[in-house]
Task: structure prediction
Amino acid sequence: MKEPEIKFHQSLNEYFKERIDIGIYTGKDIDVKTVKGWIIEFIMEAWQKLIKNLEISFIKRFDVVIATCNAQLTPLVTRGGVVIRLDLGREGIDYQDKEEIRSYIFHEIYHLADRLDPKFNMDYHMDAEVKQKNLGKIINAVWDLYIERRKFYIYRIRPIYCKDKKYIDTNKIEEIVQNNFLNIIRNQGGYTKIYESIFNKVWDQSNLITYRQIYDYSMKFFAKDKRLMRKDRNVIAELERLLEKYEIEIEGKRKTGILEDKTAKTYLGHANTFVRWCKGDFAPGNRKLK
Result:
């Protein structure tokens, strides 16, 4: 049976104070004592608001580190419970900005809350498939967007992308978050128009997003190439014709000794890979897509 909320908060406070271990290994000029106090305060606040139904005794230890150049939360699950490691070493975090630290802690604990939420329906098989296809940054961008939406609209916490404290206007914040999201997609070579529509769906407060939807949105990374090529089969036909002509030319130069066998094989391999990419059955870093 769920404990009364006030009792849960009291036990949470006592439990975490004994188990939160904070290590700050950085050359940054920060007030360590103050920052540690903020971190403990925000971990407990986020836990109370986001993960109310989990027995706190399940958490064996909560390690917080400021060391590297990334912000991430890693739950290490064991038979007896879980050890949580929260790394707040991301380059660019202003450790004198209390609200910025709060924003990052809420963001990472939201990830854990989603994994534990039956409505979110986390699927680790799909998660592994996404990583195999090198789409980790895409799915994280979509998932992060969903988290930032709830963080902002439910708790009025400034999104992690909004460094300027003067941005309190909802429309301005939405614009900043959208630009950041689309820049991530562009940097991965994604099709921006598709993701403009996805942004609107994920940012819409009326939409409850599941992991399956995040997965489907991420897989649209390949949709541009497949749709365009299906619509214009003449493009593929012409590419295949030119590839055949190119292969004949390379083979001829190999036979006459102009090209070494190894060089000819490399030329042909690259050309075939490019045509497969155009047809939508290849992504860099992967074998042939199914």
